[in-house]
Write a structure and sequence with these properties.
Radius of gyration: 18 Å
Number of domains: 1
CATH topology: Rossmann fold
Structural class: alpha/beta
Number of strands: 7
Distance between the termini: 37 Å
Shape: globular
Strand order of the largest sheet: 3-2-1-4-5-6-7
Bound molecules: nicotinamide-adenine-dinucleotide
Amino acid sequence: MADLSGKVALITGSGSGIGQGTAVRLARDGADICIAEIDLDGAEETASMVREFGRSAHIVRCNVASLEQVQSAADACVAELGSLDIAVANAGIGRGGSVLDMTLKDWQDQIDINLTGVFLTVQAAAQRMVAQGNGGRIVCISSLAALNTSQLMWSYSATKAGVAMMVRGWASELGPHGININAIGPGVIDTPLAHALAGDEGGPIRTQLEASTPLGRSGRPSDIAGLISFLVGPDADFMTGSYLLMDGGIRDARGQLVEEPDSPIGQERALHMQASQARNARLQPLIDQR
Ligand SMILES: NC(=O)c1ccc[n+]([C@@H]2O[C@H](COP(=O)([O-])OP(=O)(O)OC[C@H]3O[C@@H](n4cnc5c(N)ncnc54)[C@H](O)[C@@H]3O)[C@@H](O)[C@H]2O)c1
């Protein structure tokens, strides 16, 4: 376990899933947490979890697609918590769809959040770290989808491959400032975002996915949070510009899901697509506020 006492971490999208798990883990390691989110209910939940470890939590309403909001979030982090030593560019969305009918809006939202949002977060964090003069640690959340794709995931994959490549370029410039930056490629992690893909525990999709995963289960936010804890701690001092896959081994072992509409998997997929669309409909007005 890394000792992050005295450090302050800015984590985007930390009101749910991997971001929330990371906030809790880094708080357990001793860091204070700035929660940059569009979903303030989720942010409040994370803040109380962080405070249970005796750490400070500050919430900033921040849409990562907005230059002004990301800059304000970084300013608020320093003003309220004293510094910005660690940044996790985690906020992201998934909008799967066919090339024949994907809307420009769905394409553009993914680019604005998954790609531009990571750029703006890294820029704002690195500017403060350079000004502080003590180096820093940045982790960007890419995906297994940077390496693998499918007929519905190509646009998401494009953004995640972009993140992995941006990190390599940024590592060269930030290294001399003592700032390490790395990317993580999670496989299927049990979060609301992955729900449309992987379904419920015990359901047909999850069962087949887990059977195809060498380590026999889906990932948990705490798995990814543990890797982030390593990357922002002293044991990763000599590590920068890397892309680290954490997927339970599914990349090369992925079974082909049988998805005919009438199959159990097809039926479950349809149900989860509906649930996912309902969640997207709740978040969309927040995404549109820039
Ligand atoms: N869950 C997986 O299987 C998986 C796999 C690979 C990569 N990822 C990546 O991990 C990251 C976290 O995903 P998750 O699975 O925890 O999803 P999630 O939907 O549970 O959490 C994402 C959070 O980001 C927030 N968010 C969305 N748009 C935002 C914006 N414009 N500005 C600020 N916050 C915003 C949401 O409100 C939400 O709280 C994403 O970048 C995702 O692409 C997830």
